[in-house]
Specification:
The chain folds into two domains: 192 residues, Rossmann fold; 99 residues, Orthogonal Bundle (Helicase, Ruva Protein, domain 3), CATH 1.10.8.60. Helix content is 45%, strand content 21%. It contains 15 helices and 14 strands. A five-stranded parallel sheet has the order 2-3-8-1-11. A three-stranded mixed sheet has the order 12-14-13. A two-stranded antiparallel sheet has the order 4-5. Strand 4 and strand 5 form a beta hairpin.
C-alpha cells in the first residue's frame, strides 16, 4: 500500500455511511486496519435491534474495499444470511458451501480465469459477514435446534483458523482444472450480527427475579415545576448493554467455543430522532429519495418541510425496537394516498416552479393521529 490507511481513515469512511454508532465503528475500524495490514484481527459480533444498522454497516465495509483499489486482495467479501447455511445438503458440508460462495464472489469480482495461487490469496484474505446469526442458536423457543448447533460448529472451523482443504476449479495452462487448495482460515475476518430479540427479556427477567448478583441500578431524577417546587423520584432503567454477560449468550443458545472466537461483542445503539432524520434525508435508499424520484417522474415536485421531517423522525424514534425500519413504515404509509392521486390533496398546487405537492407538519400529525403510530 502506497499510503498506509489508518483506523481513523477507515472510521471517517464508515461514519459517513453509518449514523449513530461511534464506539462500534471505532472497533470495526481497528479490526479492518489489522486485517488489511496482515495482523491478527479480532472478529466482531454485532448485537442490535432490527433497523439499527447492522446490514448497513456490512455494506459500508464492502464499499470501503471497493473505494480503495490498493486493497484488491481483500475485496472478496460475502454478506450472507445465517439461515442459508443451516439446511443440510447431501454431499456438501457447510464449510465447503461457504467457501463455494466466496469462490463465486472472487470470480465475479476478478474474472473466472483465476489461478490456484490467486484464488487462494483472495479466499484467505476475504471478509465474511453473517447476518441474523442469532437464528443459528442452539435453542429456538426453548427447544434444541440441531441445525443451529451444526452450523455454529461449521463456522467454528473457520473462526478457529484451521487449515481447510478446498476443492476448486481454477485455470492451469489455459484450461480449467479441479484442484485441492489448502486454505489458512486464520486470515479471514468475520463480522457477524443479529437482533437477538429474546435476549433483552431473558437478561431482564434474570435480573428482576434475582437469579444472579446483578441488580437494576437506581437513579434519582429531579423535576423543577413552574411554581418553584421540586420533586425527586427514583427510577430504575434497564439497558441491555450495561448488564450483558457472556453467560447470557450461552443461555441464549450460542456455544461457548463459538462466542469466544469473537474479540469484540459490540451492541449497536438505538437510533435517536436526529440520526433517524439524517437517514431519511441522506440515505441513498431512503423512502424520501425514492418518492422524490417517483413524483419527479410524474412531473410533480415533492416538497417535505423541515418540521414534517422532524415529526416523522420523532415518531420513528418511539419505535426503538425497529429503528430505521420505522421510518420506512411511517413514511410509506403517509405518502401512499398521494402516490395514487396527488391531485386530490389539498396541499397540491401549481406554483412558479411547476406542480407541487407539499407534505408539512400538519399532514404528518394528521396521519399519525389516524394511525395511532
Amino acid at each position: 500500500m502506497e499510503h498506509k490507511i489508518l483506523p481513523t481513515d477507515i472510521y471517517t469512511f464508515l461514519a459517513a455511511r453509518v449514523l449513530g454508532q461511534t464506539e462500534l465503528l471505532r472497533r470495526i475500524s481497528v479490526s479492518l486496519y489489522k486485517h488489511i495490514h496482515g495482523l491478527p484481527a479480532p472478529n466482531v459480533l454485532l448485537i442490535g435491534n432490527s433497523g439499527t444498522g447492522k446490514t448497513t454497516l456490512m455494506q459500508a465495509v464492502a464499499a470501503f474495499y471497493e473505494a480503495h483499489p490498493e486493497l484488491d486482495r481483500f475485496r472478496v467479501m460475502l454478506i450472507i444470511n445465517a439461515n442459508t447455511l443451516s439446511p443440510e445438503i447431501e454431499g456438501e458440508d457447510r464449510t465447503t458451501r461457504l467457501f463455494r460462495k466466496l469462490e463465486a464472489q472472487a470470480k465475479v469480482t476478478f474474472g473466472a480465469q483465476l489461478t490456484a495461487e490467486a484464488l487462494r490469496d483472495y479466499l484467505e484474505n476475504a471478509t465474511v459477514c453473517v447476518d441474523e446469526v442469532d437464528k443459528i442458536s442452539g435453542r429456538i423457543s426453548g427447544k434444541p435446534n440441531v441445525e443451529g448447533i451444526t452450523t455454529q460448529y461449521a463456522l467454528l472451523t473457520m473462526l478457529e483458523g484451521e487449515q481447510f482443504l478446498y476443492r476448486a476449479t481454477v485455470m492451469e495452462d489455459g484450461r480449467p482444472v479441479e484442484t485441492d487448495i489448502p486454505l489458512d482460515t486464520g486470515k479471514l475476518l468475520f463480522i457477524c450480527g443479529g437482533a437477538f430479540e429474546e435476549l433483552y427479556d431473558q437478561v431482564y427477567n434474570c435480573i428482576v427475579n434475582r437469579r444472579d448478583d446483578r441488580r437494576l441500578k437506581e437513579v434519582s431524577e429531579v423535576e423543577r415545576r413552574p411554581d418553584g417546587t421540586v420533586s425527586v423520584r427514583t427510577v430504575a432503567r434497564f439497558r441491555l448493554r450495561e448488564y450483558l454477560r457472556l453467560a447470557d449468550m450461552f443461555a441464549f443458545g450460542m456455544m461457548p467455543q463459538f462466542i469466544s472466537r469473537f474479540g469484540a461483542m459490540a451492541m449497536l445503539e438505538e437510533l435517536g430522532k436526529d440520526e433517524l432524520r439524517q437517514i431519511l434525508i441522506g440515505s441513498a435508499n431512503s423512502p424520501l429519495r425514492l418518492c422524490l424520484e417517483y413524483f419527479r417522474h410524474m412531473g410533480i415536485r415533492l416538497q417535505v418541510t423541515d418540521a414534517a421531517l422532524t415529526a416523522i423522525a420523532a415518531a420513528a424514534a418511539k419505535n426503538s425496537r425497529i429503528g430505521a425500519r420505522a421510518l420506512r413504515e411511517i413514511f410509506n404509509g403517509l405518502i401512499a394516498p398521494y402516490e395514487f392521486d396527488p391531485n386530490a390533496s389539498p396541499k397540491f398546487e401549481t406554483t412558479d416552479k411547476g406542480p407541487t405537492l407539499t407534505i408539512d407538519q400538519e399532514t404528518v400529525c394528521e396521519y399519525l393521529g389516524r394511525t395511532n403510530v
